[in-house]
Input
Amino acid sequence: MAALALLRGSAPARLLSGCVRSALTGASWKDSGSRRHFSNDKILVELDEATGVALMKMKNPPVNSLSLDFLTEFSIGLEKLEMDRGCRGVILTSAVPKIFSAGLDITEMCGKSAEHYAAFWRAVQEMWLKLYGSNMVTIAAVNGSSPAGGCLMAMCCDYRIMVDNPKYAIGLNETQLGIVAPFWFKDTMTNLVGHRVTEQSLQLGQMYPAPEALRVGLVDQLVPEDKILSTASSVMTQWLSVPDHARQITKSMMRKQTIDKLVSQREADIKNFVGFVTKDSIQKSLQIYMEKLKQRKQ
Ligand code: CO8
Output
């Protein structure tokens, strides 16, 4: 259903998100010359009306972790752009230095109720459905480290540019936390880098420093930090030179099967997540991992 909506030229996730739709009244556009802005607590958006390109910056310090609040705000922001006829492309980047996104907020998966876990996981699914199923051209300007859910966000985009700095790493590191990436994380990665690289990456929970990420195809291009946005704009111009309808139908053709798979199993996937994350052994693994993060800091 999601990809069918994409074929018709409307935003697929719109069909899937009653709760998000009702929250859309949040931030409103502000004009300044040929640019329009809106922001909410967690994201900053600037739309250049001349080019139809929006710059979307994630701003959830210290590490842009994907909390329930962040995911909700993100989906609202993306939906707003998707519905805006003046917007054809989005560049997704981070306003937090050195971090693109630390992935799912681990504190949302520790010591909470089953209802909370279900709401959280639905919001993770929603973000993925919206970003992976977007009609717009989406380019990730990965300006920092990007583990797990952060890597997923980048992989959802049509093109990835990363800062050429080996200190920044990207990958699906779930097994390092003692947890398992769900099938749609796996499918997104397989579609991007193929079965073999995905199989190895997922089992090892591998984080790739930028040059390695380029080598395995997890990102498309490396550039110096100060060139990342200008490069993203140039790449965007190239993608937008293709007629929208032809590009959108092609994108849908490539992604429909993967999207439909989650749509048809959405409730079962939530149930599976709640069952998994409420296990004592998984709670313990996550707590140990959080403690390790804090110790590393000290
Ligand atoms: N969630 C919550 N808090 C986090 C997270 C996170 N993902 N990452 C970091 N933090 C916290 C740290 O604990 C620390 O908190 P405090 O200041 O209170 O001590 C603060 O953010 C800053 O962290 P660092 O000092 O580590 O910051 P650095 O700049 O040194 O490093 C990194 C930034 C590289 C992002 C580093 O923090 C890191 O590696 N974080 C862990 C990232 C990670 O492993 N994420 C995986 C999340 S799981 C996921 O996304 C998908 C799960 C799907 C499967 C679910 C099935 C059950």
